[in-house]
Design a protein that fits this description.
It is a single chain. The chain is an alpha+beta fold. The protein has 2 domains: 257 residues, 2-methylcitrate dehydratase PrpD, CATH 1.10.4100; 120 residues, 60s Ribosomal Protein L30, Chain: A (2-Layer Sandwich).
Length: 450
């Protein structure tokens, strides 16, 4: 039996900024910047006030800040509320079968503010959490989504604990203990997609990571083989027994953050829709299509993808985030899929609702290696004058690690997320500061509080 829990504890405890690969640093900066913008946009959602009222309203001058208001909460509550805000719009980045930044950034900002961590230390903690998450995911050949698990709130909890342990500068055993405690707090279900609980699961993962590291430092014990044990986390997540629990961590471990990268979302919907949206928008723009001239839309996508898109006739903006029918309707009616379209009013418009019945889907169980998604998605639109227009296969969405957004495109999304509450100069200055995040003395240097 390998000593995976202890080995990962040593890796995280020994990780310093000067050991990070330059490409990994650049990816982490992008993830932090994109997540902060999305978090600020998400903070306006009514769910954030709901969670804060119910669980986070105790002020704590020694704790951490809510973003962007700057109101003080306990470190754990700040991680929770900011974590929900980071994911509530489903506009946050994607990798590792989940949403790494939405879990890691709120935990790191809350813990980093409390511990007075520098930008370089916080960025190192981000990479540490990403690497732990990736290592655990790589050992499970059956996609967690297929078994009903939400990877962001299951593996993300352990990753957030590793990141917070790094910021607390815990030794290897205490870091392993943090992850072991977090393993018993890991949970989250795909069945709650399309409801407020999906983003709560992500916020809870961030909060649990903070709690686990705090308890480990205080002396709470846990099993230091909990990840690889026959009755441990990997075994519990893999009832078919296929998880690679015994594989030792290599001495020269590859950098998962470089190999996997981050996929930045262009649309505030489940990532399972993004390639199909790209395909549909391409056809709509290329052929100047209008709803009245379209007879039907057929999407070819992956089986697991469509299982996540459970709402065929959504009535709210939240439901629409998990609907292929809405994705196609928005692309056709609005010629875009943005924050303005993910509102109850737009979703319920008769011309949008009318398109839903014209959308059909075919699925494949084939998946791209290392992914939940099919090798490609495609869209076929049949017009009322008898033309059949085909997109061809779309392997990667624009904004993916393979087809990254430019710096200007990243900023455009960031500026839209910040909205009118930030002037042009402040939006630009904050973005540039985030893109040199490792040079900060700490979170206060961002001056984001409104």
């Amino acid at each position: 039996m390998s000593s995976l829990t202890l080995d990962l504890g040593r890796f995280v405890a020994d990780l310093t900024f000067n050991r990070l690969p330059a490409e990994g640093v650049a990816i982490a900066r992008t993830g932090i910047a994109d997540c902060l913008g999305v978090l600020i946009a998400g903070a306006r959602d009514p769910e954030i006030a709901l969670v804060d009222r119910a669980l986070g309203m105790t002020p704590d001058a020694t704790g951490a800040s809510l973003i962007p208001s700057g109101e003080r909460r306990t470190v754990e509550s700040a991680a929770l509320v900011n974590g929900v805000a980071a994911h509530v719009l489903d506009y946050d980045d994607v990798a590792l079968d989940g949403h790494p930044s939405a879990v890691l950034v709120p935990a790191i900002f809350a813990q980093g503010e409390a511990t007075g961590s520098s930008g370089a230390e916080m960025l190192s903690a981000y990479v540490a959490g990403f690497e732990v998450w990736a290592e655990l995911l790589a050992r499970e050949p059956t996609p967690l989504h297929r078994k009903g698990w939400h990877p962001s709130s299951v593996l993300g909890t352990v990753a957030a604990a590793a990141a917070c342990a790094r910021l607390r500068r815990l030794d290897s055993n205490a870091t392993a203990t943090s992850m072991a405690i977090a393993a018993s707090m890991a949970s989250g279900l795909v069945a709650n997609f399309g409801t407020m609980t999906k983003s709560f699961q992500v916020g809870r993962a961030a909060q649990s990571g903070v709690i686990a590291a705090r308890l480990a430092q205080a002396g709470l014990t846990a099993s230091l083989d909990v990840l690889e044990h026959p009755f441990g986390l990997l075994a519990a997540l893999s009832p078919d027994g296929k998880a690679e629990r015994d594989r030792p961590l290599p001495e020269q471990k590859p950098w998962h953050i470089v190999d996997e990268g981050l996929n930045i979302k262009r649309y505030p919907t489940c990532y399972a829709t993004h390639r199909s949206i790209d395909a549909a928008l391409g056809l709509v723009e290329r052929h100047d299509l209008r709803p009245a001239g379209v007879d039907r839309i057929h999407v070819t996508t992956g089986d697991i993808q469509l299982r996540m898109l459970r709402n065929s006739a959504p009535q709210t903006g939240l439901e629409a985030k998990f609907s292929m029918q809405f994705a196609m309707a928005s692309a056709l009616v609005a010629r875009r899929v943005g924050l303005a379209e993910l509102t109850d009013g737009f979703v319920r418009r008769p011309d949008v609702q009318d398109v839903f019945s014209r959308v059909s889907c075919t699925t494949t169980e084939k998946v791209r290696k290392g992914s939940n998604f099919a090798p490609s998605d495609s869209v076929e639109i049949t017009t009322k004058d008898g033309r059949t227009l085909k997109s061809g296969p779309v392997e990667f969405a624009k904004g993916s690690h393979q087809i990254p957004l430019s710096q200007n495109e990243l900023f455009d999304k960031f500026a839209v997320c910040l909205g009118d509450g930030f002037g042009d100069a402040k939006r630009s200055g904050l973005f540039q500061t985030l893109m040199s995040f490792d040079r900060l003395n700490g979170p206060a240097d961002l001056a984001i509080w409104t």
